[in-house]
Write a structure and sequence with these properties.
binds uridine-5'-diphosphate-xylopyranose, 14 strands, Rossmann fold, 443 residues, elongated, 44% helix, alpha/beta, eight-stranded mixed beta sheet, 2 domains
Length: 443
């Protein structure tokens, strides 16, 4: 099946490369000339484990193409996916849909024949219907089918998530003349190689599919925030968060996933999608207070942890060197969007601390986002050099491998603030460190 994917960003690239790998012929339409040049020369502009391999395979087998010419792409396609960005609009929680609607207008103007138009971008409820309106009013001479097909890809895990989905959600326009049957047929064929006995294609209405995406992310963000608040209570009461999350996680209705405390969620999805959902819900007259509170707690947590560090250091701040391991919003990504480091480090820097920072993949992006005057280390050991304390903000596996002996050898001080609960306290305490993690009172 020939498909066009509009948007060579995170979702478009991963989805396009994976669909090419399961038998489709995919043309990715990217308007940014620099990004397009990278793609055409086989350079993947994002760090996503496994994407490079799929990318090269698609280019080699000629199942993956890149262009800025939507018309040429549509001529040979029967399905076109809209996979453009829907960032949070400045000054409020609304999702910026200008790129989505621009793509809809472009499709309408350039469509050479009837098309199935599938929205893969995360869009507020009702967007698909507006896309349909744009298409049919602009080109009454053609028949457009529309569908919603939200993605559930985790950065750093996206290929696995795409190739082993626990469900594939398809929203159909049941108000259309064929009740969405054409979309059902085409998308069932396209995704057939991914369907196993354990998962399935789930068909529902357009609005339900659009809301499912937000509901999934908002619920996960709320679950993480619940763990973070439970961690605070554990610290205050002598309980241990690992025991509590194990204790509740054994209930399959709860499960232990997404109950690891951290410095607050970040990334390009949770913050954006929770805000967009809260805004849409308020606009619809049905505010979702659980999510509004989740957003407030999460924003405050990042600041509160920075204040906690300042209180711990006290008036030695101007002579304190802090080694910071981890800048990205989570491990296995180079993405700095809404990373806790972007809130915490400026506060520490402003207070006078000397910061030696390192991240395996986020350094380039971090430099342009963090204040000038930070020391960007060559590697973790370089960051640790003569540091009075160590702050862990991202759970990169290579940090977990650092032994107490190595930490002792490179650090000047003996204080560790592990905000990703990477290590077990005993080994560090025996090595003479003061070790503070989240969700357990320090001995
Ligand atoms: C998320 C959703 O998981 C994915 O399905 C959706 O398509 C996009 O948004 P992603 O943003 O890549 O994926 O990251 P995810 O792994 O979900 O983590 C989100 C945030 O929660 C990160 O900041 C992470 O550090 C934090 N987190 C996650 C925790 O603090 N504790 C956890 O136990 C899990």
């Amino acid at each position: 099946m020939n498909i066009t994917m509009i948007g060579g960003g995170y979702v478009g690239l991963v989805s396009g490369a994976c669909l090419a790998a399961i038998g489709a012929s995919v043309t990715i339409v990217e308007r940014d000339p620099t990004r397009l040049a990278h793609l055409r020369h086989g350079h993947v502009p994002i760090y996503e484990p496994g994407l490079n391999t799929l990318f090269r395979q698609g280019l080699k087998q000629q199942t993956l193409y890149f262009t800025d010419n939507l018309h040429d792409a549509l001529i040979k396609s029967e399905v076109v996916f809209i996979a453009v960005g829907t960032p949070t609009r400045r000054g409020g929680g609304h999702a910026d849909l200008s790129y989505v609607y621009a793509a809809a207008h472009d499709i309408a103007h350039l469509a050479p024949h009837d098309l199935l138009v599938v929205t893969k971008s995360t869009v507020p409820v009702g967007t698909g219907r507006e896309v349909a309106r744009i298409l049919t009013t602009t080109r009454p001479d053609l028949r457009f089918h529309i569908a919603s097909n939200p993605e559930f890809l985790r950065e750093g895990n996206a290929i696995t998530d795409f190739m082993n989905p626990d469900r594939i959600i398809i929203g159909l326009d049941q108000q259309s003349s064929d009740q969405g049957k054409s979309a059902r047929t085409l998308l069932s064929t396209l995704y057939a190689p991914l369907i196993t006995a354990q998962n399935r294609l789930v068909f529902m209405g357009l609005e339900s599919a659009e809301l499912t995406k937000y509901a999934a992310n908002a619920f996960l963000a709320m679950k993480v925030t619940f763990a973070n608040e439970m961690a605070d209570l554990c610290e205050a009461t002598g309980a241990h968060i690992d025991d509590v999350t194990r204790g509740i996680g054994l209930d399959p209705r709860i499960s232990s996933d997404f109950l690891t405390p951290g410095p607050g969620y970040g990334g390009s999805c949770f913050p954006k999608d929770t805000r967009a959902l809260a805004t849409s819900a308020r606009k619809a007259g049905t505010p979702i207070q659980l999510i509004e509170t989740t957003i407030a707690i999460n924003d405050a947590r990042k600041r509160r942890l920075a204040e906690r560090i300042l209180t711990l250091i006290g008036n030695h701040i101007n002579t304190t060197t802090i080694a910071v391991l981890g800048l990205t919003f989570k491990a296995n990504t180079d993405d700095m969007r809404e990373a806790p480091s972007l809130t915490i480090l400026p506060i520490l820097h402003e207070a006078g601390a000397t910061l030696r920072v390192f991240d395996p993949h986020g350094m380039e992006q971090a430099r342009s986002l963090l204040p000038a005057g930070l020391f960007y280390a060559q590697n973790a050991l370089d960051a640790l050099h003569s540091a009075d304390m160590l702050l862990i903000l991202t759970e990169w596996p290579e940090f977990k491998e650092l032994s107490p002996l190595l930490l002792q050898k490179h650090m000047r001080g003996r204080l560790i603030l592990d905000y990703r609960n990477l290590w077990v306290a005993d080994a560090l305490l025996q090595a003479g460190f003061t070790y503070q993690q989240l969700g357990a009172s320090s001995p």
